[in-house]
Design brief:
11 helices, four-stranded antiparallel β-sheet, binds coenzyme a persulfide, Butyryl-CoA Dehydrogenase, subunit A, domain 3, 16% strand
Length: 383
């Protein structure tokens, strides 16, 4: 157990009740149906979970980052799909506007996102710019009072043609300037020339939408530029620093979910005349899982607390995401092992957890990228 202020444990208890009542009963079906869980997301919106860290005067819940982290953790403990929908909406779709937007942009775009009337998404990754985010090829050319956007984005969480969606996307405004020639823009779904071109069929997190975006001569008013021209790369690096806390929280929640089931199974499954939890082989697995889950929780919460304290947290968020995602993979693997053949069956949620958590080692920077970020932060750029 990690010692945090009692107010956070009370907050967690409220989230847990909501998850047990609303999210958990739907989790298996969300995975089986493979469709965006409108009902669950609407209920989350009513709880304020689509406006976490957004001030109340802008329609948000006004939580701090640790409370936000606890929401993503507890929701993911039951349903990874809902966990990533909330994480992408809050950290990637809303936060950059809240943080980098001009006052008019914040006033116009943040409240509908915070109230959950509009979903938020983040368009950074491209077919040729994944780990190498500086390789962005989508272009934005200024033409009088508007930019003309051309290009495509891929693996975009929460992208949809069917519901009101707002995106923060990146595009090259000055090719000669390298990373300093990348800018960010706010664009709403339904803008002429902008379309969701393909919905991906994924291994896990099947209730979360992941799509390809296409921009063909999209005219975007100059006012939709986020911050200044050339700020885009640094904006999304900072955004990802924060986003990695929520992917760490998601991984942590899935790991805890796997541990919950493993504990229950160890106590109730009888083999050789006794519960399997009497065997050291099972006890050691449980002990390793619990130890690593606690360590991951300490790292994820620490990154959140650093962010709230206004201290540097890039290294800690990358390390928390790296560690929690690898712990989550270990825990879901071991939980299936404890369940044996039953763990491999779709009658139990373990195989879903195992598929769902795989993304946490890939999305918002692979584990390899996290190691690069950590090492560079510690060593500086060596040539
Ligand atoms: N915060 C603020 N500024 C940052 C930053 C951060 N976390 N990380 C980098 N920068 C700045 C650098 O300081 C540098 O600025 P100056 O030119 O003024 O010195 C600039 O951004 C370029 O940084 P760098 O030279 O490190 O860029 P690289 O192209 O080498 O970037 C990595 C390397 C791997 C760190 C980057 O491409 C990355 O994070 N890739 C992963 C992307 C990712 O996670 N994709 C998944 C998206 S899912 S939504």
């Amino acid at each position: 157990m990690i010692l945090i202020d009692e107010k956070y444990e009370r907050f967690r208890a409220g989230v847990r009740d909501f998850v047990k009542e609303v999210v958990e009963p739907r989790a298996d079906d969300i995975d089986k149906e493979g469709t965006f869980p409108e009902d669950v997301v609407k209920a989350c919106a009513e709880q304020g979970y689509l406006g976490l860290v957004v001030p109340e005067e802008l329609g948000g819940a006004g939580t701090d980052t640790l409370e936000y982290t606890i929401v993503v953790e507890e929701v993911s403990r039951a349903c990874g799909s809902t966990g990533i929908i909330l994480a992408a909406h809050n950290s990637l779709g809303t936060w950059p506007i809240l943080n980098f937007g001009a006052e008019e942009q914040v006033d116009e775009y943040v409240p509908p996102l915070a109230r959950g009337e509009r979903m938020g998404a983040f368009g950074l990754t491209e077919p040729n710019a994944g780990s190498d985010a500086a390789g962005t090829q989508t272009t934005a050319v200024l033409d009088g009072d508007h930019y003309v956007i051309n290009g495509s984005k891929c693996f975009i969480t929460n992208a949809s043609d069917d519901r009101d969606t707002g995106y923060v996307i990146t595009a090259v405004t000055d090719k000669e300037q390298g990373v300093r020639g990348i800018s960010s823009f706010i664009i709403l779904g339904g803008t002429s020339g902008f379309r969701v071109a393909k919905h991906e069929n994924k291994m896990g997190l099947r209730g979360s939408e992941t799509a390809v975006l296409e921009f063909a001569d999209v005219k975007l008013p100059k006012e939709n530029l986020l911050g200044k021209e050339g700020d885009g790369f640094k904006q999304f690096m900072v955004t990802l620093d924060g986003g990695r806390i929520s992917i760490g929280a998601m991984a942590l929640g899935i790991a805890q979910g796997a541990l919950d089931h493993a504990l229950e199974r160890a106590k109730t499954r009888v083999q050789f005349g006794k519960p399997i939890g009497t065997k050291q082989a099972i006890q050691f697995k449980i002990a390793d899982m619990a130890t690593q889950v606690d360590a991951a929780r300490a790292m994820v919460y620490n990154a959140a607390l650093l962010k709230d304290a206004g201290k540097p947290f890039s290294t800690e968020s990358a390390a928390a995401k790296l560690y929690a995602s690898e712990v989550s993979y270990f825990c879901t693997y071991e939980a299936i092992q404890i369940f044996g053949g039953y763990g491999y069956m779709k009658d139990y949620p373990l195989e879903r957890f195992y598929r769902d958590t795989r993304l946490t080692e890939i999305g918002e920077g692979t584990s390899e990228i996290q190691r690069i970020v950590i090492a560079r932060n510690l060593l500086g750029k060596l040539s």
